[in-house]
């Protein structure tokens, strides 16, 4: 479980901007579940989702980069939520899955050349024993 609490290359939970964002966003409750919900909404609403900012530069996958840019796509946003959770001592990891997005715009479908979003990023948090 310890590995899901540590800062890392991309899940840079010890980066000053991530620490500040997590502390500001975690809410006042001492309950990890309440903090997780508050962090989820903070990442969802505080960093604009933009699937067109994809880059092959590994730096763009860092949680701190997503915060500093103010926008990102699903993978860095998932990494950001994991980083914030880890800062708050909530074990977290990201997952990747291929998903079909029936709400995608024609522009995005054309860019992807598919209606399947390969490697869609999501976050798993260990809460209440599961």
TrEMBL record:
Under the heading InterPro entries, the entry gives:
Papain-like_cys_pep_sf, Transglutaminase-like
Q: Which residues form a coiled coil?
A: none
Chain ranges of the Transglutaminase-like domain: 21-129
The record's Gene3D superfamilies line, in alphabetical order, gives: 3.10.620.30
Indicate what this protein is called per its UniProt record: Transglutaminase family protein
């Amino acid at each position: 479980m310890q590995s899901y609490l540590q800062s890392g290359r991309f899940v840079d939970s010890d980066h000053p901007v991530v620490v500040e964002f997590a502390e500001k966003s975690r809410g006042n409750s001492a309950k990890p579940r309440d903090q997780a919900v508050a962090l989820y909404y903070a990442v969802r609403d505080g960093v604009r989702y933009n699937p067109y900012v994809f880059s092959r530069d590994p730096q763009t996958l860092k949680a701190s980069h997503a915060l500093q840019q103010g926008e990102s796509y699903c993978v860095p946003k998932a990494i950001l939520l994991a980083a914030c959770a880890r800062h708050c001592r909530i074990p977290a990891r990201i997952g990747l899955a291929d998903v079909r997005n029936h709400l995608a715009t024609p522009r995005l479908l054309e860019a992807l050349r598919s209606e399947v979003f390969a490697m869609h990023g999501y976050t798993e948090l260990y809460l209440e024993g599961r």
